[in-house]
Amino acid sequence: MRTRPHLAVLSVLAATAAAVLVAPGANAAPPAPEPAPVLPVMDCAELAQFTRPDTTVTAVEQHRGDDATPASCRVTLRVEDPEDGGAVTVWVYLPEETWNGRFQGVGGGGFSGGSAGSLEAPLRAGYAAAATDAGHVGPSGTFGLRPDGTPDQAAREDFGHEGVHDMTLTAKAVVAAYYGQQPAYSYWNGCSTGGRQGLMEAQRYPDDYDGVLAGAPVINFPEMQTGQIWGQIVMLQEDNPIPACKFEAALAAAIAACDTVGDGVVDGVIGDPFACDFDLTTLVGTVTPCGTITAEDVAVMQRIHEGPRGTDGRFLWYGLPYGAPYAGLHNVTLDESGQLVGDPFVYDIWWIRYFLTDDPTFDWRTLDRASFEALFDLAVERYGDMMGASDPDLSAFRDSGGKLLMWHGLADFGVTVRGTVDYVERVLAELGPGHTQQFARLFLAPGVGHCGGGAGAQLVDPFGALVEWVEGGRAPRTLDAATADGATRPICAYPTVARWTGRGDASDGSTYRCVPATRMELRQA
To answer: What 8-state DSSP symbol labels residue 39?
Structure first.
């Protein structure tokens, strides 16, 4: 049963978490010797005769390999659902001479279920790999409606969770046919939509994967996707579209005010945004290249950080954390008369038109707070179970021996990190801290944007840490991260943060300790 998100309280782990001196790589075990590659038991061309119920092989290619990828057999299949008429495309890439005995499912992003191009990286690493379009072609959200304007429920459900499960079962069957054996281990690797897909697998199909890597997961998809346009609604209703340089000034001021929060280091990154008490009102009167910041501007910014609220002030969803850029969701542009107007993220327009109003011509500018609230409630009611990966009961995945490694950038502008923390807090409450930490852990990366980027140290190899956890039995206490100029940092397991000891070079990750966060609760204000 799906559980509605609640305001997460201070994690019970934070009170007991001990400070541990860590260095990047310090908790990693020596790599085990890889077994000899497993060779196919059939020719690639024979997979054209592969049979499985409701499945058709549409293409088989024997790829010779090149400088980027090893020789491989590449199979495309169409999997149909006889119950609702839906169909998904599945791509499976199979190394000819370098298979490591493992399978990797790869996720999509945005409204894209996945792509064949994403399989080259796991192929290079020796994995048999697969992806799916999840029932529609390309990254556009227009698939929610058929060409005749009627809702395409089958495509919506395939995108929600059915398509990835169909892909997983089909791809594993292809792997078994080609190599004559099932993969020894199966892994999911995804970020954003791909992270949500991985959590869906763990929640609904707990036996599909031994390990799931879920980055920046869109856990509460209907809440997040509807809430993304909140800043535009606020600017519209206040008749105050804010130009980019005012937002940039606000972002820079927040980072300057809270730079040392969490990590104790001045580095242009907020180590713990949840402990940042920046006062936006101090910006009033600040002169920028696009005008002076006014009290009205600050009021808009405050509501963006607060997050979507109903007409009576009730909590709907979380807002933008301090240190995350406003750009992307809060852009404005000049209209034909030279006036500033809101310019929403195209994904938000697709969502409202093709999934909520079922009207491809719907004008978002007709929304006010009341109609926005109605759409928000409709989104949760219509898509909460179909697309929301928010069920905290992961006991079946735990009992199957699965491991879940989640990570999220604390400077993510698009998928607010508060939603991920909220989910983890509910898992802790559902299963207990001790049991949860044995199979599921969250890592929050300071200064890192959506699935990467930003001023913070970037994760080096979280997938490798997952594999070590699954196959080596060593749960990661930290993940390695590094900046472009070579500085290293440990990314600590929630609810701890990396804090500089004050001794040694702050660019050396070994000089940091994982300590309980000062304040990790989620705030409505």
So the answer is: P
Q: Which residues pair with 38 in a beta bridge?
A: 99
3-state secondary structure 1-12: CCCCCCCCCCCC
Q: Cα separation of 260 and 518, whole Å?
A: 12
385-405 burial, b for 16+ CB within 10 Å, e for fewer? bbbbbbbbebeebbebebbbb
Catalytic site residue from 118, 192, 272, 480: 192
The CA angle 467-469-472, to the nearest 5 degrees, is: 90
User: Residues 6 or more apart from 69 whose CB is under 8 A from it?
Assistant: 63, 120, 123, 124
Read off the pLDDT of residues 287-344 as tens digits, 9 standing for 90 and up.
999 999 999 999 999 999 999 999 999 999 999 999 999 999 999 999 999 999 999 9
User: What's the full length of the chain, in residues?
Assistant: 525
Per the residue annotation, which of 133, 158, 391, 412 is the catalytic one?
412
* Residue owning tokens 């929640």: 203
Name the catalytic one among 391, 408, 450, 480. Answer: 450
Measured distance CA(205)–CA(139) in Å, rounded: 25
Query: Residue 363: phi, psi to the nearest 5?
Result: -100, 115
Query: Within 10 Å of residue 508's Cβ, how many Cβ atoms?
Result: 15
Q: Which residues of the chain have pLDDT under 50?
A: 1-31, 520-525
Secondary structure of 85-110 as H, E, C letters = CCEEEEEEEEECCCECCEEEEECCEC
How are beta strands 87-95 and 128-132 bridged, if at all?
antiparallel
| Contacting residues for 166 by C-beta, under 8 A, at least 6 apart | 79, 81, 88, 90, 132, 158
For residue 521, how many other CB atoms are within 10 A of its CB? 16
- Look at the block and give the residue holding tokens 């405050």: 302
Is 408 labeled as catalytic in the residue annotation?
no
To which residue do tokens 């992806």 refer? Answer: 131
Number of Cβ atoms within 10 Å of the Cβ of 76? 15
Q: Three-class SS string for 109-125?
A: ECCECCCHHHHHHHHHC
Active site residue 337: no
Active site residue 510: no
**φ/ψ of residue 512, rounded to 5:** -115, 150
Distances (CA, A) of 25 to 73, 377, 396, 475, 495: 35, 45, 31, 13, 20
CATH 3.40.50.1820, the chain: domain bounds: 37-221+388-455
In this prediction, residue 51 carries a pLDDT of 97
| H or E element at residue 304 | helix 295-306
| Top-level class of domain 37-221+388-455 | alpha beta
User: Residue 16 has what pLDDT?
Assistant: 30
